[in-house]
What we know:
- This protein has one domain (24-140): D-Maltodextrin-Binding Protein, domain 2.
- Helices cover 44% and strands 18% of the residues.
- The chain is built from five helices and five strands.
- The protein has a five-stranded mixed beta sheet with strand order 3-2-4-1-5, with helices on both faces.
- Residues 5-21 have low confidence and may be disordered.
Amino acid sequence: MKKSWHLTALVLLTLASGLSRAEPALLVIGHPLDQKPLQLNQEQIRNLFMGIPVARGLKPAGLTADNELHFLFNNEVIGLAEARIQSYWAQMKFTGRKSPPAEFSSEQQLLDYIRQTPGAIGYVSADIPLPQPVQILLKID
């Protein structure tokens, strides 16, 4: 009887700890190109980050693989596991066909790049203040 109670308590504790660690909200952001607001849907953003041209002058940029938002973006927007994405980019680089998006080690560095680079598109957590002229393209809760 005691084992059953302990097992139930352990399961409930595990479930409760998982619920308390909700994923952060993610914003896909961009710097307008040629003074025109950017309008991209999730599929276009996915294509852009997978090296498929969406529009001239757009420059995807992301965070390094050691950042939690990197994995959230890949899961929610790209829809592929990290290993699959790494394999894809290794093949593209090896054949010389495409280069992966620029990577930054912090959200602040990525945000600075986007703020200073017309056509740059990236992602940050929803609680980071956005400077002008950066605009929100997509919000993932």
